[in-house]
Automatic annotation (TrEMBL):
This protein's record includes keyword DNA damage: no
Keywords tagged on the record: ATP-binding, Cytoplasm, Kinase, Magnesium, Metal-binding, Nucleotide metabolism, Nucleotide-binding, Phosphoprotein, Transferase
Principal subcellular localization: cytoplasm
Entry EC number(s): 2.7.4.6
NCBIfam families per record: PRK00668.1
Function recorded in the entry: Major role in the synthesis of nucleoside triphosphates other than ATP. The ATP gamma phosphate is transferred to the NDP beta phosphate via a ping-pong mechanism, using a phosphorylated active-site intermediate.
Alphabetical list of PROSITE patterns matching this protein: NDPK_LIKE
Protein name (record): Nucleoside diphosphate kinase
Catalytic residues (UniProt): H115 (pros-phosphohistidine intermediate)
InterPro entries: NDK-like_dom, NDK-like_dom_sf, Nucleoside_diP_kinase
GO CC field: cytoplasm
Subcellular location: Cytoplasm
Family membership noted in the UniProt record: Belongs to the NDK family.
Length: 138
């Protein structure tokens, strides 16, 4: 069964949207494999977003992601990576379709509520930054 790696960005805890978002994934039929709350160190966020280093929005993005606690999640299900990305919606919440998480609940491009891996390769790379082998063998 495929797995997806998800981060609920700091505004999810601040706006009390964690339950709403997790509930959408559960109702869809995705199984929660791991879930934890953490304040991310700058180095881990820089590693996560290494492909964006140097872009105009990069510093703002890293500052935002380290500004407060996030929720780290691994979910599992059939075609989980694609299913999660469809449920999350387009990167820019202005363009995200209604019915998607960003389309319904976000407006800002940096603070677009949620990050999700976009391929099996990015899943493998990203999940290892935040979870160890033992946590993933549950
Ligand atoms: P995320 O899915 O976390 O992956 C990279 C993030 O960079 C993205 O969501 C946005 O929050 C942010 N991002 C991407 N492009 C832009 C942009 N043009 N302006 C501001 N932020 C961006």
């Amino acid at each position: 069964m495929e797995r997806s790696f998800i981060i609920l960005k700091p505004s999810c805890l601040k706006r009390a949207l964690v339950g709403e978002i997790i509930s959408r994934f559960e109702k869809k039929g995705l199984r929660i494999v791991q879930l934890k709350v953490a304040r991310l160190p700058r180095e881990k966020v820089e590693e996560l977003y290494q492909q964006h280093a140097g872009k105009p929005f990069y510093e703002r993005l890293v500052d935002f992601m380290t500004s407060d606690r996030v929720v780290l999640m691994v979910v599992e299900g059939r075609n989980a990576i694609d299913v999660v990305r469809r449920m999350v919606g387009a990167t820019d919440p202005v363009e995200a379709n209604p019915g998607t998480i960003r389309g319904d609940l976000a407006l800002d491009k940096t603070d677009n509520l949620i990050h999700a891996c976009d391929s099996p390769e990015s899943y493998e790379r990203e999940v290892r930054i935040f979870f160890d082998e033992r946590e993933l063998s549950e």
